[in-house]
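so the lab meeting is tmrw and i was supposed to have these ready like two days ago... anyway. pasting both below. for each one the top line is the aa sequence and the line under it is the structure tokens. i havent really looked at them closely yet so no promises
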Amino acid sequence: MSLTEIFAEPLKTCNFDSKQQKILAMPAMSWWSTLARAAGRGVEGVASRTIGHGTAATPSARTAWPTTQGPTVLLPLRSHLVTRSASSRSPSVTVPKIVFLGPPGVGKGTYAKRIAKWLGVPHVAVGDLIRNEVKAGTPLGKEVENTVSSGGLVSDDVVLGLLKGFLEESGEASGSASATQVLHGKTIDASGGYILDGFPRTAKQAEMLSEFQNVNLVLNLYLREDVLIEKCLGRRICPECNGNYNVADIYRPAENGKPEIVMPPLSVPEGCEGKVVTRKDDTEEVVLNRLEIYRRESEPLEAYYRERGLLVDFEITGGIDHTLPVLSPTVIRELRQ
């Protein structure tokens, strides 16, 4: 892990219109079950094809994702297409142990935090764990600080050891307290659960993680590259309140098998106007280089989890209010026991 890597709301109520393939506003309490029923229905005449690191819906015969793990389930939700290897389900309690993957700027941190809060499990960013150790001045923190200061990289053993300790403490802290809830017909137990945000980063780290944790879902968020670049270039931060905003107003019409993309700006509040600045590393050259590095490093990692039937590709095509009502039931549906 490099120095850059280390130091670098309630959901909107809605309904899913299966005829028009879009989200409509409706009263609270009924939208979750309606969405779940809509998500459970297959849509004929949809094929999956690879576009970069994602998939898009095209009007042709149903085809299967290239995998040896069994038949593929295709679940188009408006302009979202979710693909994963089908697996058996049982009515037992499920503890969510989830990994969120995705390129820089896709929003995985935002969605990981909100889903973690909804499930009642810790949101774990390894970089935060390391920073906390350094700030606390622990022996490990001092070792990490010395390593980074000298231009070195924090070893996988140190990172995984720190993560293992945190997860063990977190599991012990949850104890035997009741933390179960029924979400979309599945009983979820938050005790011992977690969401790992952007970690592991390599197939080697994934193998090391599997020695002490059994991940039961890997959610791979993706976004069209041209949109991702525009989104990254629109990021703004307020140096006074540390608020993060995005001034990009993005729209792409549905064409050539690609879904419509609507991403309104995250407006800067009145108190921060005139104060926000662009991050120094949010230039097109830097963003393109960052995406190329991510692509090169993520392919073996995605293959590792795809071969084990754990990877779910989820395309982002809208803002938070549009994405969360679709992403949330997808997470519950795809969790393994």
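ok protien two:
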Amino acid sequence: MSRKPDFIRDIGNYLVGRGSLILLGFVTFPLLTRVLPVEQYGILSLTFRLVLLLVVLSKCGLQYSAARFYDASKSDVAGQRRFYSTLLIGPAITSLLFSAIYMAVLFSSSALRTDTQLFHCLLLAPVAVVLRTLQSMLLSFLRNEGRSRLHTIVEVMTKVTTMVGLIGLAVAGQHRAFPVVLATMTAEAIVVAVQMGDVLRRGLIHPTAIDWDLIRTSLKFGMPLIAYELSSLVLDSADRIIVQRYMGDHSLGLYSAAYSISGYLQDVVMTPLNLALFPIYMRLWNEEGKEATSRFLSMSLSWFVVVALFITGLSTLCAGDALVFLASTRFAGAEGLLKVLVPALMVYALHIFFNVGLVLQKRTTLLAIIVVVAAAVNIAANFAWIPRYGLMGAAAATFLSYAVMVGTLIVVNRNILPLHVNPALAISAVVALLCAYPLPTFIHSQLLIVQLLGRAAAFGTMFAICIFIMSSDFRKAVKKAFAKLPIGTISPLRVPSTAATGEGGAE
């Protein structure tokens, strides 16, 4: 049933998968923003945000239980059938239950029915909820079984199938959110059907095999984690709902596009970082203790600050060009949001360092409370600032709530696993940003892509030169990187002599 675990292999497969999804996102996003008008893109974004909320509720934390109790299912065929049946049929039932409650609320809301386009998309949400709940559990089974390659293939094929559907809509001249939602669900249904066929073929699902004791045990284990997951989702999504309420679908589309671009940049940084950090700090904590873990995370944090400052400067410089290039001219005017949202998401990314102490000490309840407080701040600030400051108020509320969350984590983590940023390296990065920023602003071209790439290349070059000059840590890192180059590569920092290499003299 399961395969022998290979940690390095699995990490590699998951990294390839996440990287592929990010790259495909940079294809589907421009496609969507060119197929859909601004207000339709906003409707699409809000629809899938609500779907995500319902999926979290539908799973009831059972995806965590799938990993926690998997070993107990491997004793015999009956145990396997009981495990898979319980943790697949159970979430399917709860997804139908929450979908029914959702539909009752939807039809009782006269305000939602007045926006016909949004209402029609929201009617399709329950189908997406059931499909995504099932797929989440099916993917958790693949992770448990050590089938990381198949896990990656399923995720990528879901995205590719959806993209094919979007291209078909573009060719057919469909420019509304409703057909996009329908095409997305059709693509996901095809993949889920294939996955379900595999599970049924193996004889792992039968309604009579449901173990209600396992459901109770799983809910007891997983429910506390829902508070964290749900509040994280509210922290990330509440602004979209409030923007739509106060400013309508067009403004929602502008804000959603800017947030999507910012989110892609965050994923580029956080995905490999998360995959790389977790196994290292867990090994250090278990084998070398607190001090070694703190040193490693402090060093990683210092270099992340450098990368975050670089991305913040680059996004501020290229915000307008990047928005038009990725999202088309119809979204022009939202570039100011990028200058707030990108730094906000870089601040949010710091939590992967400062929540480590709580994770290692298994204090997930405190972690959930911190996120709940930050989500409450986000909602309150959005209600206060959107009516007064519009979309910039929503962006500022996002920045504030992420700063509150990370600031609280820093204070709490200080007594558990204190981390320190290298001040010399951080100051060098700030100075490099300030020195590198002005010159690229003088680069102009009639071709948008030339101007975008020219400014990005100039900023990156200037930033690297400045920090190389000012930071001895950066210079040491560069020298180490060149030292690790494959044999035969010529390093500009050190040319090997014939005596060192053993070449020459024989002739």
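from a quick look at the 2nd one: The chain has three domains: 1-210, 221-421, 425-484. Residues 1-210 form one domain. will dig more after coffe
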